[in-house]
Write a structure and sequence with these properties.
Layout (H helix, E strand, L loop, with lengths): L9 E2 L9 E3 L34 E17 L8 E9 L6 E2 L9 E2 L8 E21 L8 E8 L4 E5 L3 E13 L1 E10 L4 E7 L5 E7 L2 E7 L3 H5 L6 E3 L9 E8 L2 E6 L2 E6 L7 E9 L17 E9 L2 E2 H6 L5 E4 L12 E4 L6 E5 L8 E8 L5 E9 L4 E7 L2 E3 L13 E8 L2 E6 L5 E4 L5 E8 L16 E8 L2 E2 L2 H5 L5 E3 L1 E3 L18 E4 L4 E4 L5 E2 L5 E2 L5 H6 L5 E5 L10 E6 L6 E4 L7 E3 L8 E4 L6 H10 L2 E11 L14 E3 L5 E2 L13 H4 L20 E7 L9 E4 L8 E6 L2 E4 L7 E4 L6 E3 L8 E8 L5 E7 L4 E8 L2 E7 L5 E6 L10 E7 L3 E6 L4 E5 L14 E3 L11 E8 L2 E2 L2 H5 L5 E3 L17 E5 L2 E5 L15 E4 L4 E7 L4 H4 L3 H10 L1 E10 ...
Antiparallel strand pairs: 1-8, 2-3, 3-7, 3-8, 4-5, 4-6, 4-7, 9-20, 10-19, 10-22, 11-16, 11-20, 12-13, 12-19, 13-14, 14-15, 16-17, 17-18, 20-21, 23-33, 23-36, 24-32, 24-35, 25-29, 25-33, 26-27, 26-32, 27-28, 29-30, 30-31, 33-34, 37-38, 39-40, 41-42, 42-43, 43-52, 44-51, 45-50, 46-49, 46-51, ...
Pfam family, one: Laminin_G_2
Keywords: Disulfide bond, EGF-like domain, Membrane, Repeat, Signal, Transmembrane, Transmembrane helix
Family: Belongs to the neurexin family.
């Protein structure tokens, strides 16, 4: 937020002289720029350019630097000429211009709709400038451009110093060293150099502070008495800003209090905390500005001095430049002048990737040789930089960026980093020489001498002159020199030299789309000229901005998805900031327990401790304090067992009752109550149960007996869990001893899943605070209703809004407006949604896209407009179940409402709201888990049934295993058409990368075998993508073709039942074998192309395993929402299922566990038992070591399908698409078919 002074809104243009107004052209004398003052009516009543003016503009010179806070426009008086939208450029000198961008990155200003109304635009952040230029974009289609303007603001006091790259300012302290706990340093600077020190100071004890420009960004190095940093050879800076070498003013401010630091550059703030224990910054003798004086103190690292201007430099309230100008003795100024020299470099901007070019005459010297030099900067990885026709014809020289490399049949790496790069290209004798950034040159040998002919084309080429496949260059160029003559770009702009198309002159109009970084959860941002993308690898999140967690929020959620006991990553706040943590989910009981262990699980023996020197043990959990709080808060119940075995070791002092031992809760607060009691009661569980060994005491240990006894209890007050530290203070007497054990934190239940409210009046609603959803939001909930329509939730702003509603019995609609006009996404179901059954809705909106998911129906997705408004600005309360107008209210039940990972407590709010009640009636509205393993509970008039169509299990409650025995000749192939179009509709590289980032697979199955190698499961497509799970010989995975992951070294071909879970999102792969820890892998899967289909495209080990087949039993096979093995048994007549060899239904899972002890025994017995378990086993192979290899190779094939330009919405790949075992599927299309081979 920017606060302007109350008096900084005065008119600045009305009193300016005639010479302050200039323009690109004028229709006639009466339409000149001077008549463009607001409300002026004389002559033509405003400015209008010539009809032939290709790049019209109106310029205002404020005569001195001013602070501008607003601009206003009118059309030409009493006419049909006005400007409806425009750009605003500003400059200190009138030569080098910068385009003003609003807070959300928008460039366009709204103009007029008639000739008389004044439209004022307040600037979201003020600019300090002398020159303003209005560039019309759109105007009245029934008239022409007409403009009258006013500028609002106030005068601005400026203290400027000019540094020439060798100069600096030294501010000397009054004492030998200065030690501060608080610092505020602020300045403005501008430079055309990407490197240079702005501030430096250091002290004898190793403290230092350095602020410097590095690669066009601002780096801050700060050390407060941290010896590790002092002696480290590599100092790590905090970095803010981008493109700061653009010759425009940038503001910087450092605010430090103790170890807390804010570094702000142009309204972008980075908050951080310094390392080490130091609280103060100790600097000796002096601070230097503009460079580091030589020779430096020991440890000083060499950097370039700053070359440019610094303005209004303040150190802790001291005006450094003012002291220097007045030649105060504490300031030493070397070669510093106090006026800012005008910039010498003028750039031009290439705007279009299809049509921009700059044509300049070659004017080759008499020798026939030619040289070309220029500097460029860009974000794009591809683009044509230079094209030259050569003699003898038809030779041609082309210099282009290709895949981020510079190519002239040779290359140089990484030139699309946004920095200026200097290129020198020369032809001499029989060589063409290319040099980049002063590095050693590369040469191309020629067969005969060549010389340039015709024009040199920079950045692109007209289609009539050349046929080049490479896209045109988008970026900036400057210092263009041909045959050692510097090109005057002003002459090009004025039409006196060369030709051009789609260029902006006197400006480098580049935008850093990764500043601020809109990728969430620490994801890496990369960009091109027109867009940015996020790399979610290793973050645990997915989506266009890495907003969505790939993990469930609780063990309860994993249980509902059909998972079994094991180690899992849970993300307790979903898309919130906390991140995932690994826990153990125990699902063997009726309750699902979340178990978090700590670093001291073994019993600890304590002796020789006293209240003055107690024994202290700290407990560290595999989760942060915030994650622990979220897990405990979201659970229904938590507990932690504390066992205290004692011999002459008391818990409380028997004289005054003060504690001798205690524990600290998760906040670090001291607690002296023990298991079984509420806080504040200093007793043990034996007192509650009335079975203490001596009823005179409230704890067994307080009897102070010579014999061993114990006080064991369960801590269950959630607000205090888990135990963070235990203190034992009474084992220093003769014979005193204690042994304690603190168990793992155990929680069960997920309060959010069944938190529900029932709405039974159309005018009723629940209200909550305004959604905090400016840049990203995700909303998810379940509903059931019999009503044909109703609003689920709504939040409004002044103009913006967001709404999710049931718009008809079969359609859910997600609509919003962030300033670009209303956007609407709808998902239509082929079955009614008002069927009194639970349905799932998830709506998401971020700066890249919006999406809507309903049940397992295909995901509906809408791309955000390029360069549109980004922020959703809401101001009213959030209404759930209705609207502020109390119309179109929802009738029915809503449960598990979450927004950005935060659960809304519907039940609590419903208790105080008329027309709404807590909970929801019905059999399927509680946490009783009536249906298991992804089974769906269906309400009936007199009970319920379980729909197991999407579960790999069967039975009345979806808990009966579906197992099949295989012999060597048996296999099952399951084929179906995917109901999504993303892989056919997208052909660009960016789209392919986006589809890859959203790609997701969830697989789970159990198996029993004694064979290796063995093919267990293969999923493949006709585009040669596949994931295969095989049993392979340990150490035999030496082939490099696929990506191979080995999650366990154990022998899995041991005749026992093993459960495998595989989960992939984009580049992240997670594998769990039985109940072992979850293994995570990250691979940058390359977009490879395969020439042939079939088994030739598989790895050698896969082909070998496939040739052996599989002898054993597979059970409960699940792929996303498909249960192919179960479908094979229940739909044998389907054309989509191919069964080869005998297929025998079995119950091998239960039998395997009951006979596992026999399988480790006698050879003959083992063979016999396997025959029973697996069905047909003709031979038994014993294995010494066998490992599981999950072989994942993703092969992508580009498609060139053109998209309709009018298509704004697309169906996308849905991770969980509705596949039903009834197999009501459309005809198969070859390019859109997956096969599941078992």
């Amino acid at each position: 937020m920017f606060c302007f002074p109350d008096n900084c809104n005065g008119p600045l243009a009305s009193a300016l002289p005639h010479s302050s107004f200039q323009s690109s052209s004028q229709s006639s004398a009466g339409y000149s720029a001077f008549y463009a003052k607001l409300n002026r009516r004389d002559e033509a009543g405003g400015w209008s350019p010539m009809v032939t003016d290709q790049d019209p503009w109106l310029q205002v010179d404020l005569r001195e630097q001013m602070e501008v806070t607003a601009v206003a426009t009118q059309g030409r008086y009493d006419s049909s000429d006005w400007v409806s939208s425009y750009l605003l450029l500003y400059s200190d000198t009138g030569r080098i211009w910068k385009q003003y961008r609003h807070e959300d990155g928008l460039e366009r200003f709204d103009g007029n709709v008639n000739s008389e109304t004044v439209v004022q635009n307040k600037l979201s952040h003020p600019v300090k400038t002398r020159f303003l230029r209005f560039v019309p974009l759109d105007w009245n289609p029934s008239g022409w451009m007409g403009l009258r303007v006013e500028v609002f603001g106030c005068s601005y006091k400026s203290y400027v110093a000019d540094f020439d790259g060798r100069s600096s300012l030294l501010y000397r302290f009054n004492q030998k060293s200065m030690s501060t706990v608080k610092d505020v340093i602020s300045l403005r600077f501008k430079s055309h150099q990407a490197e240079g020190v702005l501030l430096h100071g250091e002290g004898q004890r190793g403290d230092y502070i350095t602020l410097e420009l590095h690669r066009g960004r601002l780096d801050l190095y700060l050390n407060l008495d941290d010896s590790r940093s002092r002696f480290s050879s590599r100092r790590v800076p905090v970095t803010v800003g981008s493109l700061l070498d653009d010759q425009h003013w940038h503001s910087a401010q450092i605010e430090r209090f103790n170890r807390q630091v804010n570094l702000t550059v142009d309204a972008h703030t980075q908050h951080f905390q310094t390392k080490g224990e130091g609280q103060s910054l100790e600097v000796d003798y002096e601070l230097s500005f503009g460079g580091i004086p030589l020779p430096g103190k020991p440890g000083t690292f060499l950097r370039k001095n700053f070359h440019g201007c610094i303005e209004n430099l303040y150190y802790n309230g001291i005006n450094i430049i003012d002291l220097a100008k007045r030649r105060k003795p504490q300031i030493h100024s070397g070669n510093v002048t106090f006026s800012c020299s005008p910039p010498q470099l003028v750039a031009c901007t290439f705007l279009s990737s299809t049509s921009s070019f700059l044509s300049l005459p070659s004017a080759a010297p008499a020798t026939g040789e030619f040289t070309v030099r220029f500097q460029f900067r860009t974000w794009n990885p591809d683009g044509l930089l230079l094209s030259v026709q050569l003699n003898p014809s038809p030779q041609k020289l082309e210099l282009q960026i290709s895949n981020s490399w510079l190519h002239l049949t040779l290359h140089s790496a990484g030139v699309n980093d946004g920095l200026w790069h200097a290129v020198s290209l020369a032809s001499r004798s029989l060589q063409i020489t290319l040099s980049v950034d002063g590095e050693p040159s590369s040469d191309v040998e020629l067969w005969e001498p060549v010389e340039s002919r015709g024009s040199l084309y920079f950045g692109g080429c007209p289609p009539t002159e050349c046929h080049i496949q490479a896209p045109a260059f988008q970026g900036c160029m400057q210092l263009i020199s041909i045959n050692n003559h510097l090109v005057n770009l002003s002459h090009v702009q004025q039409g006196l030299l060369g030709n051009y198309n789609e260029l902006q002159f006197d400006t480098c109009n580049m935008k850093d789309r990764c500043l601020p970084n809109l990728c969430e959860h620490g994801a890496r941002c990369s960009q091109t000229w027109s867009s940015f993308s996020c790399d979610c690898s290793g973050t645990g999140y997915s989506g266009a901005t890495c907003h969505n967690s790939i993990h469930e929020s609780s063990c309860e959620a994993y249980k509902l998805s059909g998972s079994s006991s094991g180690f899992y990553f849970i993300d307790p706040d979903g898309s919130g900031p906390l991140g995932p943590t690994q826990v153990y989910c125990n699902m063997t009981e009726k309750k699902v327990w979340t178990v978090l262990s700590h670093n001291n699980s073994a019993p600890v023996k304590v002796q020789n401790s006293s209240p003055q020197r107690p024994h202290v043990m700290k407990f560290s959990y595999n989760a942060s304090a915030d994650q622990l709080r979220a897990i405990v808060t979201g659970a229904e119940q938590c507990q932690q067992e504390v066992v205290y075995n004692c011999r002459k070791s008391r818990l409380f002092n028997t004289k005054d009752g003060s504690p001798l031992s205690w524990w600290l809760d998760r906040q670090g607060d001291k607690r002296s109550y023990w298991g079984g009691f509420l806080p504040g009661v200093q007793q043990c569980s034996c007192s509650l149960e009335e079975n203490c060994m001596d009823m005179n005491y409230f704890c067994n240990c307080d009897a102070d007996a010579d014999a061993w006894t114990n006080d064991t209890g369960i801590l269950s007050y959630k607000d205090h869990l888990p135990v963070s530290q235990i203190v034992i203070g009474d084992t220093n007497r003769t014979g005193s001893q204690a042994v304690y054990h603190v168990g793992s934190l155990r929680c069960y239940g997920d309060k959010s899943i069944w938190n529900a409210a029932s709405f039974y009046q159309e005018s009723s609603y629940l209200y909550f605070p305004t959604l905090q959803a400016e840049l990203a939001s995700d909303i998810s909930f379940y509903f059931k209703t019999s009503s044909p329509s109703g609003v689920f939730l709504e939040n409004q702003g002044l103009k913006d809004f967001i709404r999710v509603e049931l718009s008809s019995p079969t359609v859910v609609t997600f609509s919003f407006d962030v300033g670009n006009g209303p956007a609407v996404l709808s998902v239509k179901s082929h079955l009614p949604l008002n069927d009194r059954q639970w349905h799932y809705v998830r709506a998401e909106r971020n700066v890249k896209e919006a999406s809507l998911q309903v049940d397992q129906l295909p995901l509906r997705l809408l791309q955000a407009p390029a360069d549109g408004h980004l922020r959703l600005r809401l101001s009213s309360q959030l209404f759930v179940g209705g609207t502020a107008s109390q119309q179109r209210g929802f009738l029915g039940c809503i449960r598990s409402l979450m927004v950005n990972g935060m659960t809304f407590d519907l039940e609590e709010r419903a208790k105080m709201t008329p027309g709404v009640s807590s909970g929801c009636p019905g059999y399927c509205s509680g946490s009783s888990n009536l249906c298991h393993n992804r089974g769906r509970c269906i309400e009936k008039s007199n009970g319920y049934i379980c729909d197991c169509s999407q579960s790999a299990y069967g039975g009345a409650t979806c808990n009966q295993e579906v197992s099949v025995s295989f012999d060597r000749d048996s296999s099952v192939t399951y084929t179906f058409q995917e109901p999504f179009s993303v892989m056919q509709n997208r052909s660009s590289q960016a789209s392919s990368a986006f589809a890859e980032s959203r790609a997701r697979e969830d697989m789970a199955f159990s198996f029993v075998t004694s064979q290796r190698p063995a093919m267990l499961l293969t999923i493949s497509t006709f585009t040669q993508q596949y994931i295969t799970t095989i049993l392979a010989r340990n150490g035999k995975n030496g082939y490099k073709s696929p990506d191979v992951f080995n999650p366990t070294p154990k022998n899995l071909a041991d005749g026992r039942l093993h459960r495998i879970r595989i989960h992939r999102v984009g580049k992240n792969l997670y594998v769990q074998v039985s109940n072992e820890h979850l293994c995570g892998y990250t691979r940058a899967f390359s977009p490879l192309t395969c020439a042939s289909a079939g088994m030739d495209s598989f790895g050698e080990e896969v082909v070998k395993a496939a040739s052996k087949g599989f002898v054993g039993c597979l059970s409960s096979v699940q792929f996303n929402h498909v249960a192919p093995l179960k479908a094979a048994l229940t739909n044998r007549g389907s054309s989509l299922i191919t069964i080869r060899g005998p297929l025998v239904q079995s119950n091998c899972g239960a039998l395997a566990e009951s006979t596992s002890h026999v399988l480790q025994g006698k050879t003959q017995t083992q063979a016999s038992d396997l025959a029973v378990i697996a069905g047909v086993v003709t031979a038994v192979v014993f294995i010494a070591v066998c490992a599981l290899a999950v072989i994942s190779r993703l092969l992508y094939q580009q498609r060139r399908a053109k998209r309709s330009s009018g298509m704004k919405e697309e169906h996308r790949h849905s991770t969980y698409t509705d596949y039903r075992t009834e197999l009501h599927l459309h005809n198969s299309v070859r390019d859109n078919v997956k096969e599941y081979y078992i």
